[in-house]
What we know:
- The protein is 54% helix and 10% strand.
- The protein contains 23 helices and 13 strands.
- The strands form four sheets. A seven-stranded mixed sheet has the order 3-4-5-2-1-8-9. It has a two-stranded antiparallel ribbon with strand order 6-7.
- β4 and β5 form a beta hairpin.
- The mean pLDDT is 89.
- This is CCA tRNA nucleotidyltransferase.
- GO terms for molecular function: ATP binding; CCA tRNA nucleotidyltransferase activity; metal ion binding; RNA binding.
- Its EC number is 2.7.7.72.
- Residues 398-425 form a coiled coil.
Amino acid sequence: xxxxxxxxxxxxxxxxxxxxxxxxxxxxxxxxxxxxxxxxxxxxxxxxxxxxxxxxxxxxxxxxxxxxxxxxxxxxxxxxxxxxxxxxxxxxxxxxxxxxxxxxxxxxxxxxxxxxxxxxxxxxxxxxxxxxxxxxxxxxxxxxxxxxxxxxxxxxxxxxxxxxxxxxxxxxxxxxxxxxxxxxxxxxxxxxxxxxxxxxxxxxxxxxxxxxxxxxxxxxxxxxxxxxxxxxxxxxxxxxxxxxxxxxxxxxxxxxxxxxxxxxxxxxxxxxxxxxxxxxxxxxxxxxxxxxxxxxxxxxxxxxxxxxxxxxxxxxxxxxxxxxxxxxxxxxxxxxxxxxxxxxxxxxxxxxxxxxxxxxxxxxxxxxxxxxxxxxxxxxxxxxxxxxxxxxxxxxxxxxxxxxxxxxxxxxxxxxxxxxxxxxxxxxxxxxxxxxxxxxxxxxxxxxxxxxxxxxxxxxxxxxxxxxxxxxxxxxxxxxxx
Length: 482
């Protein structure tokens, strides 16, 4: 956290930045108020970089559009019904995206969660309707005056999340703010105050009236933060996860005195943290990987349904990979994730145990090829997920698993260099199969192709002549019934 003096300097620098200064001057010349609001003000005071420029004004949407059009390369009014106009504004060599919204005094209808839009004429009521005090601060420009009617500065200094109005009123207006509390706790490293957290628990069931799309969006934003564990634990402890993502709290399995196994819930959160660590080390500076993070969080959700208490105190979870893959597909579909995300996350969960067979005995080159083929474009993510899944406190066991995976990755690299494994194909394509066997397109060509592919995976490249000889022999044996 930067000092208050540093925060004020940062706010002045933000106000003087080329695009902000240009927009502020245009609104002042037109006789309207303008203020930066929410995230940009908060992040400037925290010393964090900000990429969003959100403004609020007493100008109407039509007046906003009239003022920004001469300043901008393009404009959009998709949020016009809610008072928001967006634009790309250039100032010298700098171009930024801005969103400018008319002062609001809206409320929610309590049933559909759609806001009943009512434009306001002053800044303070607009700030009161915002989610948290740290987001309810504004910087009036061009005069550079901080407006903080609800103690946002004090909450920034104490790193506290609190609502401007009572939590019951705020969450009653929009229950999604309860999930935002979890997200901001992870994103900012702040603590949700006791009254706000108590309201989250008491009002958790009201999240059901929020649209699935908004819920999914907030969950994704939480997972894409640097420390999603904090927010996930808050969702679970408040009861919100029981509604939004019930498979996660279900991981808190009861452990009796006779049957012992690791805490699957805490293990899953640790796997998520470790996967993020691998992601950052392998791809520093790149955007967070939602698919990997979803897979890490959900990789063991098949365990509750497959837990068996064995004689002697052992606990088994046979086929929890396959069961978990199906459960993840069902949940992510219900949350309306896109098809590619659903496919990739469920596939990673299905494959996440495959590596552990490698530690039980040396894999043949054929087994390594199949591992690569089955993972396909998810191979690197599977590497990271599998490594992250090692959370044992037994250093010798952890080292053994780590060395085994190092060896597997080295063998994959070696085979890839030799054979270009990522594009493994049979030595003969469909046209060649038809020519060699003298058959027409149909089911038999597909059978021959799959047989040649298995042969290729087992033995590596054969060359066309040898592949043709083997294909003739297979075809003769097939047709003779041998």
